[in-house]
Amino acid sequence: MAVQMLLSELDETILHKVAEISNQNIYRCMQCGTCTAVCPMVTDMEITPQRVVALLQHGIVDPLMESRTPWLCASCLTCQVRCPRGIELPRVMEAIRQLMLRRRHDQLSPRSIPSASLAELPQIALVAGFRKLTG
After folding, report:
1. Could you tell me the pTM of the whole model?
2. How far apart are the first and last CA of the chain?
3. Could you report the per-residue pLDDT of 28-63, keeping only the tens digit for each?
4. Which domains are present in the chain?
5. Which of 44, 58, 61, 122 has most Cβ atoms within 10 angstroms of its Cβ?
6. Are 25 and 57 in contact (CB under 8 A)?
7. What are the contacts of 112-117 at 24+ separation with CB within 8 A?
């Protein structure tokens, strides 16, 4: 019982931090599915954008913290523009990524990039990738 209580408190803390970082009220979402319908990356995601919000609304954060879905969000703002409730889902995804990075869950190791690729890749793309994918 105490372990279950501890986990729910931890989940509640994570939910509070997501809301604080993103400045979004996910409870405004009416689960219409527009975000999922317009997302260009949805075919590669393990969890659809609509499901991300539903999980957060129900206080379930573990599947999100273990999935690659937040990293695949292109932050193209299509879901944000089309959302009838004005929820800025890219900000929520960014908040989840930040919390994962704070736990030292880097998605990219700069040392793993071959030196030949480093010479060919645009420097601005590398910097943007490092900012998004490393802590």
Report:
1. 0.73
2. 34
3. 999 999 999 999 999 999 999 999 999 999 988 889
4. 2-103 (1.10.1060), 107-135 (no CATH)
5. 61
6. no
7. none
